[in-house]
Amino acid sequence: MEQLFQTSVDEVSKLIGLTEDELRILEDADAAASELLVSEFERYVERKYNPEVPKILRAHNLMGVPIDEEYGGRGARQLVQSLFLERLGQTGMGPITFVDVHQCLGSLTIQDWGSEEQKKRYLPLAAKGEAVLAYALTEPEAGSDPGSLKTTYKKEGGKFSLTGSKYLISNGSVATHMIVFAYPEAGGRGPSAFLVDTKSAGFSVDMRLEEKIGLFTSDTSLLTFEGVEVTGEDLLGEEGRGFSVAYSALLNGRIGVGSGCIGVMEDCLNQVKERTTSRVQHGKQIGKHQLIQKHIAFIAASLEASRWLVYRAALKKDEYEADPKNLALRSDADRLSAIAKYTASRSAFESADRAVQCFGGFGYSIMSPVAKHMLDTRVARIYEGTDEIMELKIASSVLGKDFEAYK
Amino acid sequence: MQLHLDGSNSMNASKETVYSLLTDPNFLAKTLPDAEDVRVIDSDTLEAKIKLRVAVVSSTMKVRMTVAQRTPPDRATLIAEGQGSGSSMKINSVFNLEGSLPTKMSWSADAELTGVMAGLGSSLLKGFATKKVNEIFEGITKAVESATV
């Protein structure tokens, strides 16, 4: 689905030089986005999860885009991953949420923190799409403050037993495996991250949360863990280092969300251009009315500004990946990913709102191509770090660690 | 809103048979998917109410289909005009036939849509139209092949 306002491959090639394999990823992404369009729209109107997303991504070998080639993935750099998500984002935030969770929060976290055995066990399956991943951090009483998680684990011998609830978990009822965060029941240390097979005894999907105000085609669930047993081999990263695992996952995820929002803004601009050059009111195309042009200018300027912030964060993340012991680079990547996600999600929401305005009364219908963007991008300002948490992170990156207001 | 679609498919029948069936309103009347109240007006024209379904939303459009230009047994132009549910459309389609047993049919269609339906946007409409056209040609191919057995 190559669109008019999509970043041109030539432009990116001049910037970073794209290999043949990377160009193929983007071609595959365009083809997958085109194929997804109809089912995504139909399921959206029906307010149902879209099972075509993993099917189509599998068919185009796009389930493991950022996974290293040695584990069966396509080894995309962060910027290429962003360009892939940007293309997919043109179809909406539903597919983006599925992919962001499976790849950025799931696969990349296993790749960054997993033992060699864990990487060999999970990543080839995730790359083929035989495993679907979820990331279970949020709880009914712990959203922006993961320090208040109530899920606990009991350690007995070499085994761990997990008990608690996880709330608003994307891919929760469709995942085969998930990364689950829990505190030791006995206290004394920070939380740990575990890889849980959703077929394990004691795991259940309590509720599929379908009463959302948008994001209908993405699965969101409430999960229960009643003494779910995992072994020491399922511990992701060292025991007690769950926060480090969680935060590094969110760094990847935030660039992913920002990238998807770029695609949304591209689609808004395309749809608005088509609408305002074809609809006639007061004897002329509505695009010739200056107040409509004001909305178009806002969307176009927001798209360009957000796009380069997202790319900058992605490039910084690539730089950090090449020098993983450089903590200054990590800190920069973290700061830029927060700025990119904060700006892109807010801009996408406002752009979608203005696109709805340009569509007039029909824009308020769920059958219009832009209404879903307005409903869906709202959550991009909440999940994977609310606007407010992003603001605190950005401000403390300017003022210094002593000013970390969320601590 | 303007849309262009094209494609080709193959039918296991002679060129003459394919041509005569595809330009016969009585035959076309039997192959239209989701059609109600189909009436053949004359040897060039039929009218029908066609149900258009998008997810859970369905609407009905009254359509008049005319075989406009005939160049037997190679080529013909079909025009479909319809309106209903706050939308109107005009589709100009041309098919060309090559070979025989099987006969290869290449076709192209230019559609102009206005009203509510046009608001869906060209990328989405193209996706739906492609899906619908594939259904239509599957039906036509089956009907042509079974008519020639």
Provide the spatial order of strands within the biggest beta sheet of chain B. 1-7-6-5-4-3-2
Number of helices of chain B: 3
Q: What is the tally of beta strands of chain A?
A: 10
Radius of gyration of chain A (CA) equals 21 Å
Using the alpha-carbon principal axes, give the shape of chain B.
globular
- Alpha carbon gap, first and last residue of chain A: 44 Å
Q: Count the domains of chain B.
A: 1
CATH homology superfamily of the largest domain in chain A: Butyryl-CoA Dehydrogenase, subunit A, domain 3
- Provide the CATH topology of the largest domain in chain A: Butyryl-CoA Dehydrogenase, subunit A, domain 3
Strand and helix order of chain A: HHHHHHEEEEEEEEHEEHHHH
* CATH level-1 class of chain B: Alpha Beta
Structural commentary:
The complex is a heterodimer of chains A (407) and B (149). In chain A, the strands form two sheets. In chain A, strands 1, 2, 3, 4, 5, 6, 7 and 8 form an eight-stranded mixed β-sheet that branches. Chain A contains eleven helices and ten strands. With 407 residues, chain A is α+β, with helices and mostly antiparallel strands. In chain A, 52% of the residues are buried. In chain A, 53% of the residues lie in helices and 14% in strands. With 149 residues, chain B is an alpha+beta fold. Chain B has a single domain, classed as START domain (Alpha-D-Glucose-1,6-Bisphosphate, Chain A, domain 4, 2-Layer Sandwich), CATH 3.30.530.20. Helices cover 28% and strands 52% of the residues of chain B. Chain B contains three helices and seven strands. Chain B has a seven-stranded antiparallel β-sheet. Chain B is globular, with a radius of gyration of 15 Å. At the A-B interface, α2 and α7 of A face α3 of B.
